[in-house]
Structure formats: structure tokens, C-alpha cells
Amino acid sequence: MASSKKLIEVQTEDQTPHKWCVSLGEEVFKRFFSQVNPTVHKVFGDGSLFSPMLFGKFFDPSDAFPLWEFESDILLSHLRSTNQSTVDWCQTNEGYILKAEIPGTGKNNNIEVHVDKGKKVVEISGQWKKQKDSKENEWSCGHWWEYGYVRRLEMHEDADWKHIHAHIYNDIFLEIHIPRL
After folding, report:
1. Is residue 62 helix, strand or coil?
2. Which of 96, 98, 113 is nearest to 7 (CA)?
């Protein structure tokens, strides 16, 4: 079976969208995650790039996370051995590569990749459920985690934010290439 590949436009605005600005606290997340909702567990479960419980410790997904400072083989070894990992990243001579399964997507996926050039932050986000009584992409940042997902990643110092490119494969696998300067 052939895989389909679609280029995702990487937005390079002065600031990333503010709809993800409300922090998700650990206690709020635990209450939200305790729902018996398979989509919530797929989006925010173990091994997902978008899980606030990244690597067993709580990290607010709306905060910039220094992913490239961690050794992927060490942090992901347990998740890989239990087939729970839906994210992988590596550093090459040419740059940095992030691969992640995008939860709750499909042919109608709504993946966005933004780069905040002033802060050298790449943001991956998407909606997995529409908020009632709102226009598409104009919903409040009140409780963003009930309607979508986000992960903000700090880029390495030598990252070339101007030449980032992103693709989605088979409507569910995201791959982002960040070249070095």
C-alpha cells in the first residue's frame, strides 16, 4: 500500500496563535483525563507528543518544551519497549527530525505548524472537536484542551527556523524537518 504525503505550510508569524495561551494545570488535566472518552485518551495518553505527562512528569503543553536537550533513546526506550510511543525525534548532521502520530485525525485533520521566530519555538496544534456556537478557528482559549491539542517545542540554538518543512503521511503521521544553520 502506497503512502500519501502532504506538505503542511509552516506559518512564520511574529507570534504563534494565542488560542493556546491558557495553561493546563496538572490537577485540571487529571480531572479532564479521568473522563471515559477514548478520544481524550488517544490525544493525551501515554506516548503521545501532546500528553502533558510527557516522560512521566507533567509538562504544560502550551509551554515551550526543550525536546532537543533530551536523548530520545533514553527517554523513549520504555515507551518503545511497550509499543506506547507515538513520537520520535533525532538529531542528524543536517538538522533535527521530529516524527509523531497525530491523534484524532484523518482526512479532515486540522494540523497547524507555527514558528515563533523571536523565541525560536515551533508549535504543533490541531482541533479534535469543534466548540459549540463558534466559528471555526475562532474559539476561545478558555479550555483549549477540551477542543484541541498543542505542543510547543523550543528549537535548538543552531536551528534554521526559516527553512523548516513539515509533511503529514497517510493523514496521521507528522514529520517535521528543522535544518541547522
Report:
1. coil
2. 113
Least Cα distance to 150 among 71, 64, 79 occurs for 64
Structural domain range at position 173: 5-179
Helices (H), the chain: 26-33, 38-44, 72-81
**Separation of alpha carbons 66 and 74, rounded Å:** 15
Strand ranges inside 3-147, DSSP E: 5-8, 10-11, 64-65, 87-91, 95-101, 111-116, 121-127
* DSSP SS3 for 36: coil
pLDDT digits (tens, 9 = 90+) for 55-104: 777 888 888 888 777 776 766 665 666 666 677 888 899 999 999 888 76
Q: In what order do the strands lie in the sheet with 121-127?
A: 10-11, 111-116, 121-127, 148-154, 64-65
Q: Domains in the chain: how many in total? A: 1
- Domain CATH for 171: 2.60.40.790
Q: Which residues contact 51 (CB under 8 A, 6 or more apart)?
A: 44, 45, 61
Distance CA 13, CA 141 (A): 19
